[in-house]
Amino acid sequence: MSATNLSDLDNDIYLSIIHNKTYWTSLAVLGFILAIAITAGNSMLLYTIYKDPRKSLRSAPGFLITNLSVADLLLGLLNLSIVAVRDVYRSQLINMPFLGILKAFMYIVFMTTLFVSCNTIIVMSATCYVAINQPLEYKTIVTTKRIKICIAVLWIMGLGTCLLPVAGLSQQTFVMIYLHTHATIPAILLTVIYVKVFRAVARRTRELQQSGYDKVATKSLERERNMVVVVIIILALFYITYMPQYITIHLLYFCNSCQQSVTFHEIDVALSRFVYLSSAINPFVYAWRVPKYRKP
């Protein structure tokens, strides 16, 4: 969702800028493909968690994975599917019916789910650090009750960010807050967390080598290493897919020539669709890297 879409809800500003029907048709097709992939992949993951006979997927980390999957599912089902339909109307160079209401709805879903996804990854990273650095205290520190409270707080805060424009903030100020709370600050936090995680892994490995072979401790460390890899892959996907829009939105506000360029706006809109890629890929990362998510 581009920054310019947050204003003038009753008009589709891009229809007055981009008149290429083939361009909009291509984006519509891509949107429907991604929406189907996101909905199907995350629905299957949630079904697997729900039907797990051993309830082993309902641990504290499991709830975080479920939360991330729910956010991804809502993004595909309630945001991207509408975006794709809007692109169909754009391909005919006409406004979508009920555009104002739908744009406001898409904006709320997009902002909330992106906030929840980003911060869920931060919490997942923090739990990985605790599991590696304090394995004996892990179950008393990271409890399902605390994780559930954390998840509830994330959704409340995510919805709260949508109300900032009502407080009288200018669009540019709001978009800058949105960018830096969803990307810059989390990137700094995650860098610090993962420096600590890798140091903790190195320390635990040395301790195991010095104390001799311990099958249980070694297996536990290997499991946590694998989970760290999963979170890093998900984190990398999130930032790789989010970074193009992060760059184009800054250019939109601070590059005068870009604002006047049709080509720039075409690139901006196309790159905004990259944000959805990680939501489509995440379920397959779990199936690939975490064996218990592959078990029937």
UniProtKB/TrEMBL annotation:
Its main location: membrane. It holds the Pfam family 7tm_1. Keywords: Cell membrane, G-protein coupled receptor, Membrane, Receptor, Transducer, Transmembrane, Transmembrane helix. It comes from the Eukaryota. The keyword Lyase does not apply. It is a multi-pass membrane protein. Gene3D superfamilies: Rhodopsin 7-helix transmembrane proteins. One of its GO terms (cellular component) is plasma membrane. Residues 41-286 form the G-protein coupled receptors family 1 profile domain. It is found in: Cell membrane. GO terms for molecular function: G protein-coupled receptor activity. The chain crosses the membrane at residues 23-50, 62-84, 104-129, 149-169, 175-195, 228-249, 269-288. This is Adenosine receptor A2a. It comes from Acropora cervicornis.
